Amino acid sequence: MIPQPRAIDVDASRLLKRAADFVSLGKPRVVSMVLLTTAAGFYLGSQGFVNYVLLLPALLGTGLAASGTLALNQYMERDVDALMQRTRQRPLPDGRLQPTEALLYGAFLTLAGLVYLALAVNPLCALVTAATTLTYLFLYTPLKRLSPFCTVVGAVPGALPPVTGWTAARGDVHFEAWILFAILFLWQLPHSLAIARLYREDYARGGIRLLPVVEPDARSTGIQAVANTLALLVVGLLPTAIGMSGGIYFLAALALGLAFLWYAVAFAWMRTIPSARQLLFASLVYLPVLLLAMTLDKVPHGILLP
After folding, report:
1. What pTM, to 2 d.p., does this model score?
2. To 5 degrees, how large is the angle CA 253–CA 211–CA 197?
3. Could you say which of 148, 173, 198 is where a domain stops?
4. How many of the other CB atoms lie within 10 Å of CB of 174?
5. SS in 3 state form for 64-123?
6. pLDDT value at position 145?
7. Is there a domain that residue 4 lies in?
8. Among 30, 274, 295, 264, which residue's Cα sits nearest to residue 165?
9. What is the pLDDT of residues 199-250, one digit of tens each?
10. pLDDT, tens digit (0-9, with 9 covering 90-100), for 165-193
11. How far apart are the first and last CA of the chain?
12. Number of folded domains that form the chain
């Protein structure tokens, strides 16, 4: 019997929805930020012309490993996600995917990404990516239920992607790569604290012990946000001081850093939902604009093409 078009359409729709659920396990928006910072690290680490033939496999392998790591994170936190409003509709707590499916999918993507980086790029690049995966899954993820210090620990894997890009371009790690790491590390703290303040009640329901959950008055959260944006203001100027970028970047970093600090101070003073939302928005503007200024000012006449 020839299948009816209606039945074929239903099956195709079901397959597309399952595919979309698997993709969502890898958190594409987070992966896009990982790839942005990896590409920036690659470009800044490149000597002379940018080797785009090498950049593409570096981004592909990093994207696979990052997607797999985030899928494994959702597998590990599926019980917590089921308790929180903002995450209960994810594929695992909603029952659209089975835990075993997520585990196998995440493990396959992570392993494939690491092996591909080791073979197509270089072993050091794969090693840095493996460190990102291990610290994210086995330090940051379990620590979220134990201590507010998890935010600091979680900033480590979040700050490693530009180092991955740098090692992909050069095959080694220079002092400049750790400047990029420090910028990403310090940026993540006020960014994450703002999110934690916005969703404090939800995190509390899930048993996630972030700083705004442990100290609901958000006083310590505000102090931490100001301290880290102030440190970021200083560290953000170092690329010019060590010769990575020029004067245009210096002015951009100074302006961005002062604006970011302003919103952090406003948040520390008011400790309200609107001020947390403004701080979050400032963080989302700060990082891509800073990286763009850093990369554009690396070469006086703009980006060199092969």
Report:
1. 0.91
2. 70
3. 173
4. 12
5. HHHHHHHHHHHHHCHHHHCCCCCCCCCCCCCCCCCHHHHHHHHHHHHHHHHHHHHHHCCH
6. 94
7. no
8. 295
9. 999 999 999 999 999 998 889 999 999 999 999 999 999 999 998 999 999 9
10. 999 999 889 899 999 999 999 999 999 99
11. 57
12. 2
What's the sign of the alpha-carbon dihedral 224, 269, 236, 59? positive
Taking Cα atoms as reference points, which of 41, 109, 101, 43 lies closest to residue 70?
Answer: 109
**Pick from 193, 75, 58: nearest CA to 128:** 58
| 132 in a structural domain | yes
- Domain endpoint, select from 173, 206, 222: 173
Q: Looking at the structure, tell me whether residues 163 and 45 fall in a common domain.
A: yes
Residue 6 covered by a domain: no
Q: Confidence band (pLDDT; 50, 70, 90) for 14?
A: confident
The residues, ordered by sequence, that sit 6+ positions from 217 with a Cβ below 8 Å of its Cβ are 271
Supply 79's token pair. Answer: 């019980």
